[in-house]
Write a structure and sequence with these properties.
17-stranded mixed beta sheet, 39% strand, alpha+beta, Diaminopimelate Epimerase, Chain A, domain 1
């Protein structure tokens, strides 16, 4: 049994397109989160349940800092939808339309859009095999894996497959098989996508340490970059996921990703 203290642990539940998060603001609670707590809270039967747990902290060089845990207690350097959700909440709280957020990816910029969506610049994609990382030198645009996937780093590693029909892939078996593929020493997120139009993709996601998710921001960025590198789309694409639609724009200053956010409820863990 996890001890949340006599006063409990306040948290927020948020989601971006069904990609759901528990958010703890350690600026108010002090340091509380570790791998054990992440696993306990992430249990959808005995805890709250989430795809990622996000922690808000103070930052000297940005408006706030973020850290992320997966449901299995492992950490991640980036989580695009959680970043957007927290940015939307903080901008609304401050009455601002722009925010900077320190993550392991660096300082990211978020903006409130006039259409009610929230955009974040997830930074430039990582294309070098060492930095993704991969276990050995290979061409990241054509990995030596059946299905000819693309490797991309967005603060976490991604393996993107372009298929005839993403709906037809048996993702519950395909995802874990490739998450643990030996070429990825830190495991990888896995995406299957097909082209709907030159500016439109349909994608499904298997996230490392989590499983199938309704959406993934960094996965969407990685697939958009991979598709543009392959020349099958332009740099600005609509991506339809199980939970809804994100819009990704690979610009000179980084990969911008925009979509809706939701603050579902506040609670206290006891």
């Amino acid at each position: 049994m996890t001890d949340f203290g006599t006063d409990g642990l306040p948290f927020m539940k948020m989601h971006g397109l069904g990609n759901d998060f528990v958010v703890v603001d350690e600026r108010a609670t002090g340091p509380r989160v570790d791998a054990g707590l992440a696993r306990a809270v992430g249990d959808r039967h005995r805890g709250v349940g989430f795809d990622q747990l996000a922690v808000i902290r103070d930052a000297g060089d940005a408006d706030l800092a973020l850290a992320f845990w997966n449901a299995d207690g492992s950490t991640s350097d980036a989580c695009g939808n959680a970043t957007r959700c927290i940015a939307a909440w903080e901008m609304a709280r401050l009455g601002a339309d722009r925010l900077t957020l320190r993550t392991e990816r660096g300082v990211l910029v978020a903006e409130a859009r006039e259409d009610g969506t929230t955009a974040v610049n997830m930074g430039p994609p990582v294309l070098d095999w060492r930095a993704i990382p991969l276990a050995r030198e290979v061409c990241t645009l054509h990995l030596p894996i059946d299905g000819d996937p693309v490797a991309t780093g967005m603060g976490n590693p991604h393996c993107s497959f372009f298929v005839a029909d993403a709906e037809a892939v048996d993702l519950p078996s395909f995802g874990p098989m490739h998450e643990h593929y030996a070429l990825f020493p830190e495991r990888t997120n896995v995406q299957v996508a097909h082209v709907v139009a030159p500016d439109h993709l349909r994608m499904r996601v298997w996230e490392r340490g989590v499983g199938i998710t309704q959406a993934s921001g960094t996965s969407s960025c990685a697939v958009a970059v991979a598709a543009a590198r392959r020349g099958i789309t332009g740099r600005r694409v609509r991506i339809d996921l199980d939970g809804g639609t994100l819009h990704v724009d690979w610009r000179d200053d980084g990969v911008w990703m925009a979509g809706p956010t939701a603050h579902v409820f506040d609670g206290v863990l006891r």
